[in-house]
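Dear Dr. L.,

I hope this message finds you well. Following up on our conversation about the binding site, I have prepared a predicted three-dimensional model of the protein together with nicotinamide-adenine-dinucleotide. For your records, I am including the exact sequence and ligand specification that went into the calculation, followed by the structure tokens. Please feel free to forward this to your student if that is useful.
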Amino acid sequence: MQVQDYKFFVNGKWTEGSATETFDLRNPATGEVLGRVARATKDDMYEAVDAARKAFQAPAWRDMEQTKRGKILLQLAALIRQNFEELAKTETLNQGKPIRESKADVAWTVRAFEYWGGLADKIEGETIPVTSNRLTYTIREPLGVTAHIIPWNYPLALASRSLAPALAAGNTVVAKPAELTPLTLLKVAEYAQKAGLPDGVLNVVTGSGSQVGRALVSHPDIDGITFTGSTETGQQIMGAAAKNITPVLLELGGKNPNIVLPDADFDKAVQMAKFAIFTNAGQMCWAGSRLLLHAEIYDRFLNELKRQTELLKIGPGLDEKTELGPMVSKEQQERIVGYIKSGQEEGARLVTGGSVPEDPALKNGCFVKPTIFADVTSDMKIGCEEIFGPVLAVFKFNSVDEMIHIANDTNFGLYAGVWTNNLKLAQQVVNRLQAGVVAVNDYLVAYPQTPFGGYKDSGIGYENGMQAISHYTRIKAVTVNTS
Ligand code: NAD
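The resulting structure of the complex is given below.
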């Protein structure tokens, strides 16, 4: 395979800036080098912020009618749709996930640009009654230049989740993809230019988090920061933002309870418990990584889940039959294996998995067998830390109070699933869960129109829906004396 060199995108131009080094991009299923991407420097990042600032002040963007801005995003959605197969294939080659999951991510991305493209001319202020001789109204203005730091687990879908509303609201943006997975976002930059986005409105800079990521979020000329990634990095970013009083939207980690009550639809709950943890090889902030089973169904559920898990087809994502792809990198593979060891040492019961696959065809890839631990407690590392891999921790409960205690006994609070046919009970559980998003008789459901955000260490603010527009705009209150 030919190894391709990639540049980054600043002010409408592809450039290597002042980069003298590159990153290797690898196919995590084979270890093969796919390409090399320029490792931008801080100066390159400063240039990107400068380009975004100039574009924000330029009439081409500032004075563009909202409807036209929306149409550009709709055109971008159309171009992404036209290049659907290529984008999905690129995502799988670069990130590792099964191709049907990459296709779902591209479909989500199209929907995101369509949703926020449609919303661009519906961002409204309000009139506020005060006195008869005064007219008071609000204007919603874009923030200015927004910074977007993207993780490697959903490189395309999570980039679009924040870029689309920021652009729809009239901001100009600088995005930094994760070191390991920049390819699909670079494609989006190419299509955005074709769709008619003026130069400097969307800039994508490839580089390390500690260098260019940090340079971006600490830049005094940034008006808003959206970060999706780990809680530790989120804390650092919030610290950097504090110096400049920059608003932050943080979407961080999770250790999410997926709760099954005895009256639930058994077959569906088993199938979805598997889906909730092994999709994207468990590399998901919203993974159903803690399965809470009522004692009445505990053994039967575990047996069936074990049986179905052992049937999962592990392999390279490009193989249409693959259900579980590799970890994104060797480093992540080693991290997950470390967590498995700690689960065994801390006395959890290994039900299935627990190692890398024996298949010699997979030895160069970053694979880990789908793993289930039973009899887990919240004080075990595998019971409280975010593993970010295909490792499920199963807890037993006897009462609703005990279940709520276990579910909330975590520093995180992003997502939760509840399985029951008793709607009254479901609502009681929903009310008591400390989680920003809850699915009842479902899991891994997200739409561009549904707010997504976490309690506790899982983040601050909401992505998606009208709530996202609030983050990317500020309000100006105007009073006119009419007397
Ligand atoms: P990470 O925090 O290591 O990196 C995320 C991004 O931040 C990367 O682009 C990285 O280069 C950049 N970065 C690192 N240090 C930085 C710094 N000091 N300043 C600025 N940028 C910096 O996270 P990851 O390993 O890529 O992603 C996994 C984590 O992301 C998990 O904890 C997961 O739960 C979380 N996540 C959360 C959501 C959500 O919506 N809540 C979604 C996906 C992933």
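In brief: The chain has a mean pLDDT of 98.

With kind regards,
A. P.
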